[in-house]
Design a protein that fits this description.
single chain; Nucleotidyltransferase, domain 5; 15% strand; alpha+beta
Length: 170
């Protein structure tokens, strides 16, 4: 650890493993809003965040709980699996377009960038909604996994119904 008069202490969020400041600076230099995707133990959260001098400002937000309360996703279904993550990203993308945002850069934080993961399912939802986010197609999950066909046959119908309600809302 840094000790002594000539040593420099690390930033608190770097020391606790919460922020990679080099990656954050690269994202901020793009000048675009950041599409922040976080997957917690209970839900997927997507936010559109812009940088301000006095701190980041969350412009728009969508969570897995919004799927239940606003769009009719069954309460017994997961709020963080692949189909739910896609729908949360889709809802954020539609609301971003309605609010006048048309492009962003993906910010996955310290999450592992595994191809086909829930983070990239949310990215696919934002891209399908019409938001322009630079990405490679090799990291996106397949269509049958996005619709929930790998989980249960009933997921596909619930998925389509929820997606149509999101389209109607925006």
């Amino acid at each position: 650890m840094a000790q002594g008069p000539r040593q420099r202490n690390q930033f608190r969020r770097r020391k606790s493993g919460e922020t990679d400041y080099r990656r954050r600076l690269k994202l901020l230099k793009s000048g675009n809003a950041r599409a922040v995707v976080r997957v917690s133990n209970t839900r997927t959260t997507c936010q559109l965040v812009t940088w301000k001098v006095d701190g980041d400002k969350v412009e728009l937000s969508a969570t897995g709980d919004d799927l239940i309360s606003r769009f009719g996703w069954p309460e017994s279904n997961s709020r963080k699996n692949l189909p739910a993550s896609y729908l949360v990203g889709y809802a954020l993308g539609k609301s971003a377009l309605a609010a006048g945002h048309d492009q962003a850069v993906l910010d996955i934080g310290l999450a592992a960038s595994t191809p086909g993961s829930r983070v990239f399912a949310a990215l696919k939802g934002m891209v399908d909604a019409g938001l322009e986010i630079p990405h490679g197609d090799s990291v996106l999950p397949s269509e049958d996994r996005l619709s929930g066909a790998h989980i249960d046959d009933s997921y596909a119908s619930v998925f389509e119904a929820t997606k149509s309600k999101i389209e109607e809302a925006y």
